[in-house]
Amino acid sequence: MHLLTNRFKAPGSEAGGGGGEEPRQEAPVQGLSDLRRRGVMLVKTEEDVKVIDAEVLKFELMGDKRTTIKRGAMERIKLVNNLHKLRKRQGRITNLLKVRLREFEAKPAEEREALRRGFKKADVDRNGHLTAKNLRKALEEVGLVARSDVEKRELKALCEQVTVLDADFFLFVFDAVPRARRMLGDLRRAPLLQDFNFYDADKSGTLDKEESLKILDRLYTWNLDVQGLSEMTAAFHRAFDLHAKKEVDGVDFQGFEAMITQLQEAYTHIIHQREQCVQRLECLDDRTMEEHLDEVVFLHDTFSRWAEEVEEDDDEDGAMRRRATVAAVQRMLSEFMRAAREEPLQEAIRGLFKEADTFDTGEIDFSEFLWLVRKVREWVIQLAKDDMKVAFNRFDQNRSGSLDICEVNKLFVELGLSARSREDQSMLKRLVNQVDVDKSGLVEFEEFQVLVGRVAERIHAVQSCRERRAGLEAGFDENEVADLRDVFYSLDLDKSGMLAIEELRHVVTCIRCVVSSEQLREVVDRYDAEDKGGLDFEQFVYCLRELLGNKKSSATSLASLASS
């Protein structure tokens, strides 16, 4: 410190000296304290002194000591000052990162994994930063998906704002994700309030666990397998317990909003994991996965329930693989295709099965089943092409060869495929986006044909899933539930989805269940509480279970009744 101070003293200013002062435009530097007072630098450590001192010595060898030394030292002082500022800034950033890391590690393990996976999948350049487009993809990966045009527009603007700075992982986690949640929550508040009031049957202003479970059943179960459904149910209980008010043992609207957001993100994570599992297990390529987007887990679960495990002939390890017969395939298709119960399509299925069974073993594996599903869909589209064309042209009034979403909705109402709820409308929009291959926002006739088939399948699949669960809860096994569904829909000649008491009496007689007309009428009236004049399938299985009691042997005759 002493060396540096002396070198910046003006000539003749040593202690005891009284040399005359030469006129100057600026006063000479009087050591480090003078520099600090002038605001030139922030020198705090001996290391800084050594750095400056070395530079001064270097300039002393260059001639004009008085001018050159002062100019060079001042530049170095400014450089060290900037260095200190940089170090302080880096220190603050390091401390902030440590805080963020602790906050991130405090999150639940599932949420941390979902955030990491979403960011990694969207970071296509692997540079640790996201563009606005990739940020939207990352948000979708964690379940923050825009459903309407308004939501898409607002989410796009949010991503552009966030990516003005480098959108690294922590900015994604602690800025983009929370802001997207708030924004989507604000936009969905009105529709969510309608759902909340609908499920709040007792008008208490809160939903208990039983009422909330109905939401889980409607929104997040149809395309999950057994494991996925188990994980989703566990996620529901965690979300409900977290947001429920203990004094009323239920969630108010604010808690309901937070619960739905958490469930949506959990569902996205679970379905992604189950899709990856199916892809690995069945060795499916990415193109096949893309062709069966949103349904591959459902199809695999359906296939697994009806196919039988057989040992692979060419596998030395004796690995087991599921394979299905043509009868099993017909049962599988009937779970999401209503027409699969009708003879014209059943004949087509038998023909396509022979094509899929390349080695003529009488059985096909899952990848061959997916091929068969695609071919059956093509067959159904071709069969209904003329009728679909007439309906399409009737709504295509300007003869443009395409329909917008409003015209598609009107046509779907006429075809009996209207969206009855907000989630049905959301599902319809997702399917429109999937079939709209040219991304024009309009649906051409070929796309419309595919869309009609997918919507009809989706509605039937959701209904079949609900009916299957009702049959299992009523005490019937998988085969008996399938037989009951065949019986029910074979007797439902008017396609109303209901059976009148005369048709129920026929079923009761065929399964040799002894019951008087008065008893049957009493049971039917009890289940037909809304006096619709008949029972739907879920009411039908509970009614039949009550009539049968514990007589399991009587139910075995259902198979023969179904085939008659």
Can you tell me about this structure?
The chain has 564 residues and is mostly helical. It folds into six domains: 2-100, no CATH class; 109-187, Recoverin, domain 1, CATH 1.10.238; 190-277, Recoverin, domain 1; 293-312 and 319-383, Recoverin, domain 1, CATH 1.10.238; 401-461; 474-563, Recoverin, domain 1. Helices cover 66% and strands 2% of the residues. The chain is built from 27 helices and four strands. The protein has helices at 2-7, 31-37, 46-60, 65-105, 109-122, 132-141, 149-162, 169-187, 189-199, 209-219, 226-243, 253-282, 286-291, 296-306, 326-334, 343-356, 366-383, 385-395, 405-414, 422-435, 445-473, 478-491, 501-510, 517-527, 537-548, 552-555, 558-563; strands at 308-311, 320-323, 402-403, 443-444. The strands form two sheets. A two-stranded antiparallel ribbon has the order 1-2. Strands 3-4 form a two-stranded antiparallel ribbon. Helix 3 (46-60) runs antiparallel to helix 4, helix 10 (209-219) crosses helix 11 (226-243) and helix 11 (226-243) runs antiparallel to helix 12. The longest helix is centred in the N-terminal third of the chain and has 41 residues, at 65-105. It is globular, with a radius of gyration of 36 Å. Residues 1-44 have low confidence and may be disordered.
Care to give the gist of this entry?
The protein is mainly α. Helix content is 66%, strand content 2%.
Q: Give the overall silhouette.
A: globular
**Helix/strand class:** mainly alpha
Q: What is the number of beta strands?
A: 4
Q: What count of helical segments does DSSP give?
A: 27
Which stretches are poorly predicted, pLDDT < 50 over at least 5 residues?
1-44
N→C terminal distance: 106 Å
Helix content: 55-70%
Q: Provide the gyration radius in Å.
A: 36 Å
Strand content: under 5%
Domain count: the total is 6
* Biggest sheet layout: 2 strands, antiparallel
Sheet with the most strands: spatial strand order: 1-2
What is the residue-mean pLDDT, rounded to a whole number?
78
**Assembly status:** single chain
InterPro entries: Centrin_CML-like, EF-hand-dom_pair, EF_Hand_1_Ca_BS, EF_hand_dom
Domain EF-hand: 110-145, 383-418, 423-458, 479-514, 515-550
Pfam families: EF-hand_5 (PF13202), EF-hand_7 (PF13499)
GO molecular function: calcium ion binding
